[in-house]
């Protein structure tokens, strides 16, 4: 089986900063991952950003739902200035260019059409483009080349962690779950959890507020997982001494228990059957939980 090697260059030596992702010498497509505030700085040193290419602006709306804008340009370093003034939602840009400079005006328009069409059909993100994008004229040979190039764009987008082109998986809500909440009034903690009995999964819901500090009593595995979540700006947002979750967080793989879910929220060892209550204020039904296994 052939092995595909993916290279990542950290332009400012951090995982959260600007970087380049590509698939080596056998593939022409490369992806620039650009935080909004790093575009100008990176553009000065990366001439590839000043050629024809395809890009995606990524962010969230006021309800934290994922949003994307699909576009093409002959020079992203200039185009982005307009987006900074007119579009507030985005915090990261993915810019795709050809290392061999094989994308021209018609090809860029065709990539934009393919990207917009794929994102709309997937319906996994709110697409911020206000107008439909019509298919531009392109020869059959060039269409084939750009469709292959777009497959690489899809791969690198998925590698980065963005699912804008992917059809959403079966929603969790389709499986029967039991809802619980946990509060620590003095600390401001207010978390909501769903236990999915059939698949034995614990999911802390988006919008929950969890304690920011991780204490020594928290298990090493859970502590590492918590720190990874709160360090990711796409998953959690700081709110004083707390963090608000921006996405549902499944903790089952780290600790498949109500206590593990409670520890994730409190940042310390916690007895889950005492912490979680249902909608009627009853404590977590440990008998019901045991019967599910």
What does this structure look like?
This protein has 293 residues and is of the alpha+beta class. Helices cover 29% and strands 26% of the residues. Strands 1-2-3-6-4-5-7 form a seven-stranded mixed sheet, covered by helices on one side. A four-stranded antiparallel sheet has the order 8-9-10-14, covered by helices on one side. Strand 4 and strand 5 (66-73) form a beta hairpin. Helix 3 (105-122) packs across helix 4 (140-160). The protein is elongated and about 65 Å long. The model has no long low-confidence stretch (mean pLDDT 88).
List keywords for this structure.
29% helix; 293 residues; single chain; 4-stranded antiparallel beta sheet; alpha+beta; 8 helices; elongated
Summarize the model shown.
This protein is 29% helix and 26% strand. By secondary structure, the protein is α+β, with helices and mostly antiparallel strands. Helix 3 packs across helix 4.
The helix content, as a percent range, equals: 25-40%
Strand residue content = 25-35%
What is the approximate shape? elongated
List the helices and strands in order.
EEEHEEHEHEHEEEEHEEEHHH
Q: Count of DSSP E strands?
A: 14
From the helix content, strand content and strand pairing, which structural class follows?
A: alpha+beta
Rg (CA only)? 22 Å
C-alpha termini separation: 39 Å
Number of H/I helices: 8
Poorly predicted segments? none
- Largest sheet, described in full? 7 strands, mixed
The side-by-side strand order for the widest beta sheet comes to: 1-2-3-6-4-5-7
Mean pLDDT: 88
**Quaternary structure:** single chain
């Amino acid at each position: 089986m052939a092995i595909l090697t993916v290279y990542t260059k950290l332009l400012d030596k951090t995982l959260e900063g600007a970087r380049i992702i590509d698939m080596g010498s056998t593939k022409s497509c490369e992806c620039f991952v650009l935080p909004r505030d790093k575009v100008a700085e990176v553009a000065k040193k990366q001439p590839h950003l000043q050629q024809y290419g395809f890009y995606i602006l990524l962010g969230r709306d006021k309800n934290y739902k994922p949003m994307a804008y699909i576009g093409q340009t002959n020079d992203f370093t200039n185009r982005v200035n307009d987006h900074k003034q007119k579009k507030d939602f985005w915090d990261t840009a993915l810019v795709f260019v050809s290392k061999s400079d094989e994308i021209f005006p018609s090809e860029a328009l065709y990539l934009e059409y393919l990207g917009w069409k794929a994102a709309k059909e997937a319906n996994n993100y709110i697409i911020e483009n206000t107008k439909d994008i019509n298919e531009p004229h392109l020869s059959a040979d060039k269409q084939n080349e750009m469709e292959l190039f777009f497959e690489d764009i899809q791969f690198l987008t998925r590698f980065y962690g963005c699912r804008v082109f992917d059809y959403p998986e079966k929603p969790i809500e389709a499986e029967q779950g039991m809802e619980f909440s946990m509060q620590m009034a003095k600390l401001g903690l207010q978390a909501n959890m769903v236990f999915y009995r059939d698949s034995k999964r614990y999911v802390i819901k988006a919008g929950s507020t969890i304690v920011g500090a991780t204490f020594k009593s928290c298990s090493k595995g859970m502590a590492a997982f918590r720190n990874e979540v709160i360090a990711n700006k796409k998953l959690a947002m700081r709110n004083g001494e707390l963090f608000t979750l921006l996405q549902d967080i499944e903790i089952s793989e780290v600790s498949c228990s109500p206590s593990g879910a409670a520890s994730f929220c409190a940042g310390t060892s916690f007895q889950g059957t005492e912490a979680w209550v249902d909608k009627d204020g009853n404590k977590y039904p440990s008998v019901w939980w045991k019967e599910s296994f």
